[in-house]
Design brief:
Helices cover 28% and strands 21% of the residues. The chain has four helices and six strands; from the N terminus they run αβαβαββββα. The protein starts with a helix and ends in a 6-residue tail after the last helix.
Length: 102
């Protein structure tokens, strides 16, 4: 999503990563990788639970999820996966931002 961040912004969208790391580890990772979008530390999985993201202990963590929430807090689209191969394509994500009938 880093490479397509400007496309999302041009459509009035913001990408926010919800990470299972603590604040220090998350800040370090974001700085090391130069990610342009914001992230929120969620080591206790509170936000993940609110969004229906699964945590599987046998897989040592959270299952991948991509959730599109509009400016009013309405979930427009959601994808939940078993691995990173299950996440949607950039085209699918951008398409989920389109307003029907507009």
């Amino acid at each position: 999503m880093r490479q397509h961040y400007d496309e999302f912004r041009q459509r009035g969208a913001e990408i926010v990563a919800i990470a299972p790391d603590g604040p220090r580890a998350l800040t370090r990772y974001w700085q090391q990788h130069g990610l342009p979008f914001p992230a929120v530390a969620d080591p206790e999985h509170r936000i993940a639970e609110l969004l229906g993201q699964e945590v599987k202990l046998l897989k040592l963590g959270r299952m991948p999820a991509v959730i599109v929430v509009d400016a009013y807090g309405v979930v427009r689209a959601a994808w939940y996966g078993e691995s990173m191969r299950d996440i949607p394509s950039i085209e699918e994500l951008l398409q989920s931002l389109e307003v029907p009938g507009a």
